[in-house]
Amino acid sequence: MRLTKRMAALAAAAGLGAGVTVGIAQAGGDDPPPLWQPTITDTPAPATTAEIAAYSVLAPILARGSGPDTTQVAAFGTHAQIGVDVDGSRVVDSTDAGPIWLIPVTDGLCLGLEDTTGGAIGAACEGSDDVITRGMTIGDGTTIYGIVPDGVTSVTVTPMGGSLTTATVSSGGIYTLPSGTATVSVDGPSGTAEFGVVG
Amino acid sequence: MRKARRALGGAVLVVVFGVCATAAYGTSDFWFSGSLATNAGFASTDAHSITYIQGSADHNGFCVAKDQGLAGFDVATRATVGTQACASSGGFASRSEDGSCCYHGWIANKNTFAISVNSTTRYDY
Questions:
Q1: Do B115 and B58 touch, CB atoms closer than 8 A?
Q2: Taking CB atoms and an 8 Å cut-off, how many pairs form between chains A and B?
Q3: Which tens digit of pLDDT belongs to each residue from A81-117?
Q4: Most A CBs within 10 Å, among B64, B73, B96, to test the A interface
Q5: ∠B50-A127-A49 over CA atoms, to 5°?
Q6: pTM
Q7: Are B44 and B31 in contact (CB under 8 A)?
Q8: Residue numbers in A near B51 (CB within 8 A)
Q9: Chain B residue closest in CA terms to A122
Q10: Torsion A59-A64-A70-A75 (CA) sign
């Protein structure tokens, strides 16, 4: 009986095959869920206690002086609508093009690469648990920039087809890798975590 | 005459409302979703003054950017005019851009397998 039902289902699927395939490609309705999908909201989501414990730079600043220009982070927040906390965003390092930002959003954190002259910012975002455990990365097509939790001073990197190397972490928690595919190992506060990077 | 004036007034209101709505929210082009093959990229058909690009997928290893030139499919390693934002370890990448004219939206899969691009992938202009 179970086999008959399966065969009927297969026959129906085969009969509709082409149409269904086109429908999915266009609408994406039955696609697998995205790796991480933030809640759509305009309400800023300040860093959580757990995020601040892992990244002390995110702690609230009670008496703020003249801080860094947040124009690009604000523009990102307006468009993305994922609860970007502009005031709670922090500069953790810089590239030749501009600041590197750690940006609190709903249920996660983003790492942003600002292009100050170009009036632009690239941002990659991940869920809180992953970022607290092993940090996160963003690529710009040439370099991959990673951030790790407080206290991590180096990470080990094994490029695809290559041998293990060590990447030094800056005082702001940032390390860099050349674009490509690699496995990164982070000895963080909650133990050793290994993850793949592609970019 | 009175009817004509009312109709004209209504038309003006509709146009003003439309302009305001466009200025406030812009327009989005959800230019690609579904399966994206290994080492493939896809550029939007239209080119616009892009202010924002967002990509979301079921795997890491994809990049978004604004680009000029060919629309449609190409290899993922194609050099883009705009700087890329790559979701190298997560599933969400975006670029907030300056709105200069005119660019295609671009998304590329740098993995050795196909990924599923989410339907929230879009650019605003």
A1: yes
A2: 169
A3: 999 999 999 999 999 999 999 999 999 999 999 999 9
A4: B96
A5: 120
A6: 0.83
A7: yes
A8: 75, 79
A9: B95
A10: positive
